[in-house]
Amino acid sequence: MRILLVDDDTATRESLAEYLTLLDHAVISCADADKALYILQSHDFEMVLSDIQMPGKTGIELVREVKKISRPYLPDVVLYTGHSDLELAIGALRAGAYDYLTKPINLEELGVILSRVAEHQSLLAENDLLTRKFDEVVAEATSDIRSEFSRLQDLLEEQAGLDNIGFFSEPMWQVVSQARRYHEDRELPVLIQGETGVGKDIVAKIIHYGPDQSRLPFIAINCAALPASLFESELFGYEPGAFTGSAARGAKGKIDLAKGGTLFLDEIGEIPVELQAKLLRVIEDKSFYRVGGLEKINTDIRIIAATNLDLGERIERNLFRKDLYYRLKVGSIIVPPLRERPEDIVPLAKLFLTTFAKKRGKKFAEISSEAAMKLNEHSWPGNVRELKNTIEWISVMHDAFELVPDHLSIIMQNIDRSTVSTADKAENLLLQTGRKRRNRPSDQEIDETLKSTSGNKTRAAALLGISIRMLYYRLDKKKTDFSK
């Protein structure tokens, strides 16, 4: 720190200056208050250390004059005197002194005060910076938030669209109608169930945005993608020093970011069991505690959850709390798989085809009746996501006005092999174990099951009866073993 030392006693002034210099402080010293005030007019200091009893102005008068200096933040003044007088100490503090010492000065006590002053000055400097930059920071943050809202709305309009949602069958319009009714009541938790790839995230956005295109925050978290060790801090945030490696100022969690809007918990079936009670409290009490925190924080969020797992079966295996399940299922939507709504297949394919054609400058605009027949013949185990990926691949590899069977032949052959022969082989391997699921499937079972699901890891993990995190662990371990 930069310290101004004021004392009319030369010996005391020099010894204190030497001690403070040894502690790596920058020290300027003078013998009276008037000289100190002159120096303060043209130099910045974090601390003034002054004797009280001096010729001319006293240390207490020096404190009062320092307080009159026009500056964003002022140095802390610490006074000392050889007179152990309580009234004098009270007068110093009332005048605005930061602290008070008596002679002979205890160096250990002085060291403690120096640390406190350094911390206090750091906070003052930070507060001054935030004050001066407040309008700029707020404007930038507001711009970022508006940009994110705009991006999410553009994404919704592009992939689902509030006027053209991309659902064409009666079952899906019933889903949309139900989602819009849930939009009207933010207090209602909603559980969306359906196979991987059916569009549960789009349904969640319809619930959130509604027909009025709400500008409230929509924050999504994939419960299957986070390690259990990080899940709690990601969801609830944490206080400063909550754990090794945590940010010095702590961090807000997804619940904080979703305040006033929607928190979308995708793959809710993968949430660690030990955190489910805390999530239940958020839903019921609208409050939570940050990791390492003691203060209850109230929140105002809508909870939407989605899963492709059988939560009833996970409850039986003690992997999911029954009370959380029923609390989430107050509002329930089941999204049917694509094979159960075949009237959606061709219209969706055409929607994707024209979208990707426009994006890549291709001519695709129609689907031939023969190609439409082939599309309808396939079971689409990956649902809408698989259909979309298939059409995108075609838009990359081909260019024509009309999509014809030749564009589908290679893809459909690969799909047939992966969904029929490989699926049978994977199922046979599982049945050979004498049970449908294993706690530790073999590498061969993992490979065959991934082939049968066209690489869909979430669906493969469910088929194998293991968590998605365990599947990723096994795949990483295979790579490591192979490289040795």
Shape: elongated
Structural class: alpha/beta
Distance between the termini: 55 Å
Number of strands: 16
Question: In brief, what are we looking at here?
Answer:
By secondary structure, the chain is of the alpha/beta class. Helix content is 54%, strand content 13%.
Give a verbal description of the structure.
The chain is elongated and about 105 Å long. The protein has helices spanning 10-22, 33-42, 59-67, 86-95, 107-132, 134-159, 170-183, 200-209, 228-236, 254-257, 273-285, 311-316, 322-328, 345-360, 369-377, 383-397, 405-432, 443-452, 457-464, 468-483, and strands spanning 2-6, 26-30, 47-51, 76-81, 99-102, 190-193, 218-222, 237-238, 251-252, 262-266, 287-288, 297-298, 302-307, 331-334, 366-367, 402-403. It has 3 domains: 2-132, Rossmann fold; 149-336, 3-Layer(aba) Sandwich (Rossmann fold), CATH 3.40.50; 341-483, Helicase, Ruva Protein, domain 3. The chain contains 20 helices and 16 strands. It starts with a strand and ends with a helix. Helix content is 54%, strand content 13%. The strands form 5 sheets. A 5-stranded parallel β-sheet has the order 2-1-3-4-5, with helices on both faces. A 5-stranded parallel β-sheet has the order 7-10-13-6-14. A two-stranded antiparallel ribbon has the order 8-9. With 484 residues, it is an alpha/beta fold.
